[in-house]
Amino acid sequence: MKELILGGIRSGKSRLAEQHALASGLPVVYVATAQVRDEEMRRRVAEHQARRPRSWALVEAGQNLAEVLQREAGAQRCVLVDCLTLWLTQLLCDADEAALRRECDALLEVLPRLPGQIILVTNETNMGIVPMGELSRRYCDEAGRLHQQLGALCERVILTVAGMPLVVKDRGGA
């Protein structure tokens, strides 16, 4: 089962993903994509860490998310990735265009072949006005394209709003 959970900042998407991972009854591998570069991000990461069960394995992913997923996914395992938009932001800021394309394509290629339960968390940022800055517009374009492609590949897509899940797509599964 591949699941994509989208929502705005503080919409409840991470909590929902964590609940789904717990409900799976499988051992969970939490794949963190955040890079702590300031005190505010350090607080956000600490909040997420405090909520997670200690039994969950933690893997910190860099740009090579597809490689990490291939290594960590298993038939009797749940892998929770939080979050794709942080991963995408780091690619936009730290990688060249070829690396961005390569890593996004690798994720899209490997996802359908991964065994077990995969839960992907990401920020839905494209429900407002078009940003003024070039990098912000590019980010929204890249996130929008990636979300569309992932939504097509996942069996379940959920949008979270005010802590409430809105099922956008559900093709069954676990």
Give a brief outline of the structure.
By secondary structure, the protein is an alpha/beta fold.
Principal-axes geometry comes out as globular
* Sequence of strands across the biggest β-sheet: 3-2-4-5-1-6-7
The CATH architecture: 3-Layer(aba) Sandwich
* pLDDT < 50 stretches: none
Helix content: 40-55%
Give short descriptive properties of this protein.
alpha/beta; Rossmann fold; 174 residues
How is this fold's topology laid out?
Elements: E1 2-7, H1 13-23, E2 28-32, H2 39-51, E3 57-60, H3 65-72, E4 78-82, H4 84-94, H5 97-110, E5 117-123, H6 134-153, E6 156-161, E7 164-170
Parallel strand pairs: 1-5, 1-6, 2-3, 2-4, 4-5
Antiparallel strand pairs: 6-7
Helix pairs in contact: 3-5, 4-6
What features would you describe in this structure?
- The protein has 174 residues and is an alpha/beta fold.
- The protein has one domain (2-170): Rossmann fold.
- 44% of the residues lie in helices and 23% in strands.
- It has six helices and seven strands.
- It has helices spanning 13-23, 39-51, 65-72, 84-94, 97-110, 134-153, and strands at residues 2-7, 28-32, 57-60, 78-82, 117-123, 156-161, 164-170.
- The protein has a seven-stranded mixed beta sheet with strand order 3-2-4-5-1-6-7, sandwiched between helices.
- Helix 2 links the parallel strand 2 (28-32) and strand 3.
- The protein is globular.
